[in-house]
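Researcher: Please translate sequence to structure tokens.
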Amino acid sequence: MDKDLIREFLLSCQEAKKICELLPPLPKKMKPRHVRVLDAVHTLQEKNGIVRVSDVASEMGGTLPSITKLVNELCEMKILTKTRSAEDKRVYHLELTKLGDTYYDKYVTRFRDWLSDELDEISEDDLVAAIRTIMEVKRILVSNRHPI
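Model: Translation complete:
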């Protein structure tokens, strides 16, 4: 493959990372990964009703310890609640609080609605191709780590 094209692709990936830095400013102590947890909890709650920390870890492709840390931070900020399961005391069920619902609406729903309008000039086919390409490049790189 053309090395200049690879260079341009890598540069565009760096620019894509900067897109995440252009997200709306978050409240103090809140990180972009916290928003991803909110999104995962909300999505899983709508799909399954009950949400466990392990479900969020699977949904996000994260490790249980890292997701547990984020969940605990969100609980401290009163954005999530964590309730011990009656059936299995080792398991916690997660739920968005009223503040969590407010943040979900602002930082997920309304932001995606706005972004959808802003990106209207990009075809859905082009967006799907970009997603597919990024995910495939990640898969290749993860499975074929360079020896450097």
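Researcher: Any highlights?
Model: The CA atoms of residues 139 and 145 lie 10 Å apart.
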